[in-house]
Design goal:
This protein has 244 residues and is mainly alpha-helical. 59% of the residues lie in helices and 3% in strands. The longest helix is centred in the last third of the chain and has 25 residues. Keywords: Endoplasmic reticulum, Membrane, Transmembrane, Transmembrane helix.
Length: 244
C-alpha cells in the first residue's frame, strides 16, 4: 500500500506535486500547532502596511483542519490539477503555472475589491483563505475543456463534465457550506477560459500569453509522438533520393 502511494506521488507532474505537497505540509503544520493559521490568512491591511507579502501565497496553501472535508478537497486538487497539467498543458508547464498565477491574482483582487463594497464587505471579509476557490477554478477550467465526458455523482445520477461545477455548487449549498467560495472559483475559471479560449477565437489575439521570465523558469520538454509500429511509410520521391 505504501509503495503504491509512493509511486502515485512520484508520477505526479511537477506543479501538481509541488502544490499538493505544500498544501499537505502547511495543513499538517497548522494541525500540530507548528504553524499558526493567523500568520497565513489573507489580510490586505497587513500585506500593504506591514509588508507581509507571504500572505498572498500562504492563503492558497491552507485547507483548514485535517478532516473528511480536507481529504475531499485534496482529492479534487490532486485529480484536476494533475489532469490539466498532464493533458491540456502537457509540455507547457510554464503556461500551467501562469494559469494558476492568473487565477490566484483574480481571486485575490475580487476579495480585496469586494471587501470595500458596501453590503458585500461583510461577506468578503469572511473569506480569508482562497485554497478551495483556486481548486474550484481548476475544476471549472477542466470541465470547460472536457465538456462531453460522462460523469456520475455518488452513483445517483449521471451528467456531462460541463455541468460538474454546478453540481458541486449545488452540493455545497445542500451541506450548508458557503457558496461564495465556489462562485469565486467559477468566476476566476471563467475569466481564464474566456481570455484563453473564447476571446482568441473571436479576435485572433491572445491576451494571456505567458511572460518570457516565467517560461525561463521551466524547462519544458517537447511532446514527442512515437512513430507507430508495423506501418509502412511510402518511400521519398525519386528526385529526393538523387539530390546532391
Amino acid at each position: 500500500m505504501a509503495q503504491a502511494v509512493e509511486d502515485w506521488y512520484k508520477q505526479m507532474p511537477i506543479i501538481t506535486r509541488s502544490y499538493v505537497t505544500a498544501a499537505v505540509v502547511t495543513t499538517i503544520g497548522c494541525s500540530l500547532d507548528i504553524i499558526s493559521p493567523s500568520n497565513l490568512y489573507l489580510n490586505p491591511r497587513l500585506v500593504m502596511k506591514n509588508y507581509e507579502f507571504w500572505r498572498l501565497v500562504t492563503n492558497f496553501l491552507y485547507f483548514r483542519k485535517m478532516d473528511l472535508d480536507f481529504m475531499f478537497h485534496m482529492f479534487f486538487l490532486a485529480r484536476y490539477c494533475k489532469l490539466l497539467e498532464e493533458n491540456s498543458f502537457r509540455g507547457r508547464t510554464a503556461d500551467f503555472f501562469y494559469m494558476l498565477l492568473f487565477g490566484a491574482t483574480v481571486l485575490t483582487s475580487i476579495v480585496i475589491v469586494g471587501g470595500n463594497i458596501p453590503y458585500l464587505s461583510e461577506s468578503f471579509a469572511k473569506i480569508i483563505f482562497l485554497s478551495n476557490s483556486l481548486t474550484f477554478m481548476m475544476v471549472y477550467v477542466w470541465s470547460k475543456q472536457n465538456p462531453f465526458i460522462h460523469m456520475s455523482f455518488l452513483g445517483i445520477f449521471t451528467f456531462t463534465a460541463a455541468y460538474l461545477p454546478w453540481v458541486l455548487l449545488g452540493f455545497s449549498v445542500l451541506v450548508g457550506a458557503s457558496a461564495w467560495v465556489d462562485l469565486l472559483g467559477m468566476t476566476a475559471g471563467h475569466a481564464y477560459y474566456f481570455l484563453e479560449d473564447v476571446y482568441p477565437r473571436m479576435t485572433g489575439r491572445r491576451p494571456l500569453q505567458t511572460p518570457g521570465f516565467i517560461k525561463s523558469m521551466f524547462a519544458d520538454e517537447a511532446v514527442v509522438v512515437a512513430r507507430p509500429v508495423n506501418i509502412r511509410f511510402a518511400p521519398p520521391p525519386a528526385e529526393e533520393l538523387h539530390q546532391d
